[in-house]
Each structure stands twice: as structure tokens, then as C-alpha cells.
Predict the 3D structure of the following.
Amino acid sequence: MLAVFYRSSSHSVDQTARIENAFESLFLFAFLPSVITFYGCYFLIFPHYLQQKKITFSIIYGILITIGASIIVYILMRYLIESGQLMDMDKGGINGRSTAIRTILVMSFIASISGIVAMVIKGFITWVDEIKLKEELRWKNHETEMALVKAQLDPHFLFNTLNNIDVLLLEDAANASNYLNKLSDILRFMLYETKTDTILLEKEIEYIEKYIELQKIRTSNANFINFQIIGSPDNKKIAPMVFIQFIENAFKHSTNKKIDHAIQVQLFIEKKTTRFVCKNKFDPKRKLNQESNGLGNDLIQKRLNLIYPDKHNLELSNHCNLYTVNLTIQNG
């Protein structure tokens, strides 16, 4: 009777141990590869490949992660089985090369489901974040638009331009009419063309050229400003009025109109980037409240951060009475 009791107790302990080993094996077999694949797809595949629309690389690297995780876990399982820490599942069919391959494929299939779920979740979170960003950008654009209207429709600029055109009417009516048309184009551009998120780079360049031409009326020095375009717009697009504020500030700070090339503006248009460089000589003794005469650098930087997050680089330098703006924007 006592022997029967001991055999029963021993059988119960063995059964409990087998159940525990079965759960441990199941954890290694299904859960661990799935976790590795989930986080690999969530933090690596989606942001670096799928979000960048590199579909082929996403599939290839996703498969490599799932298979790699499955192989690592399978090797770990074999080690634990052979060391006696897990139930030997050879009886259930984990022995032999072909069986090992089938086991790894099954583990990879289960892990791939977790990878797909990870990318769906990450995609949904990214989509929600983009909606929030667009909403924030919409309000910031509204704030910036109001500041732009205030800055661009500066009464001093308008009155000075109109007065110069009025004086020019007595000397050269045809030329005065040409400048008046340029002013009309500038106002039309600011009121209508800047409503969209992006415009053709070519239109932005036309606006800058017309603005510079109007500013030239105020000086007899034709070489006061030098504007160069290196490269071709080629239907490239850009956010409206990201360069003009720097040019405006350059005119405001460059007071000596007799200096040649007091303002130098260059636009380098390349395949992947558009680089804007604006240099202007200034009198350090002359104080000018930039914030009250146009958009300050802080607001310009905030706007760039919203429009081109992680896709632009703005460098400002002030050396030897030469102020330099170097703005690089990634195309596309």
C-alpha cells in the first residue's frame, strides 16, 4: 500500500516537472523569437526602411530577423535540452536535420506574425503623430502667416518703394511701370501663392529676384547685391518664403549702399539638397531691432523645425562684420 502511494507521488512530481518543462519549451519555441522579431521590426525595420518606402529591404531584413531569432532560440533550446534543463522534445520530433529545419521555419512563421503586428502598431502610432504634427504645423503656419504679412507688408518698404517708383515716373515712365508690376507680383505672391505647403522652387526664385530688383531702386550701386543660382530647379518644390526673411534682414543691416557686394546671396541646387547662403556686411555700431522689423531667427527656426524636421541644417555666424546664413534643406 505504501509502495503504491510512493509510486503515485513520484508519478505526480514527474508529471508536474514535465508540465513545467513543456511551458519553458513553449516559451522558448514561440514567445522568445516573437519578442525579438517584434522589437526588431518596431525599432529597426519600420523607421529605417518601411517608413522610407524601401519595401524590398524591409522584406529582406524582416525575414533575416525572424530566421536569425529562430535559429538563436533553437540553438538555445538544444543546449538546454542536452544539459537536461528542459524536457527532451526529440520524442516529439525535434531530432534530425530536416526536423530542425522544419522547427526553425515554424518558429520563424510565428515570429513573422509578431513582426507584422509590430509594424502595423508602429505605423498606426506614426500616423497619429503625423496628424498631430500637421495640426500643430497648421496653427504654427497661421501664426507665421500673420507674422509674414506684418513683416512683408511693412509700411516702410511699401512707402519707400512707391515713393521711388513715383520719382522714377518723371524720369522713366516705362521703367517705373516695370517696377510697379514687380511690386504687384510680389503682393500677389504673398497673398495667394504662399497658401500651400510647398511651391515650385522656380517661383520662389522669381519672387526673390523681384524683391531684390525693388530694393535696388534705393541705390545707384548696381553691384550692391550679388545673387547667384548654381544648378537648376528642375521642378523641385520647397516651402514658401523660407529664404526671403534672411535676405530682408541682410538689406536692413547693410546700410552702406556704396560697398560692392555688400550682400551676397547664393542658391546651390543639387539632386538631394538645396543650400542657401546669404552673407552681408554690416556696421556693428548701428543698432537695429530685428524682431520689430521682421521675423526673428527664433521664429524662423521654429518654422523650419516644423516644416523640415530632421531634414534641414541652419548655421548662423557673425565674424569680422560679416553675417552669414547657411541653410541646407533636403529635397523631396
